[in-house]
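Mods, move this if it's the wrong board.
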Amino acid sequence: MSSTKVVVFSDFVCPFCYIGLHTLRSLKPEFGFEIQWRGFQIHPEWPAEGMPAEHYYRAMGEERRKAAWEMIESMAARAGLQMRPPSVLANSYLALAAQEFAVEHGGADAFEERVYRAYFHDQANIGERGVLLDLAREVGLDAAALDQALQEDRYALRLKNTALVAHQRGIGGVPTFIIGGYPLVGAQEADVMRQVLQRAIEIGA
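Not the wrong board. Structure tokens:
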């Protein structure tokens, strides 16, 4: 299946994206597919500086939010991750742009995982440029070059085009995995992904 590509539309502020991508990558040695990442911002309306999580979830109520995160943490544990609810809801635009830089410079997997862990475990505001530059340094990327790219808004058109393609394909949520041309939506268990990947092999997709 080495010629098969799995296209993933995802956003760093989506906990199910973190779980789904982690599960997908665990199957990569078994199937040998190529992952093509597509950054798709789901909350562009969130302020650039971020906002306290309790402000956004106030209408939901504390009990419902607690129950939702217990479910997420359980899903994460089954996938081999430890996750905590972020204290600040970050605008993900800069993080998505930084990931485009990482894709270009050969550090996509490491940077992506580090950004997710920073947000969903370390309580970092990944909407801050300084935070992203520190994470880039940690995984061996050129932070000065990344800083320049972010200041120039170098990936604005690419992110806009990704959003356009997503809408044209009827993709309204993340994560969406396109496996062998077929969409798989949401964080799935490893066995479900394995079945879809196996089917893609059988039909030569």
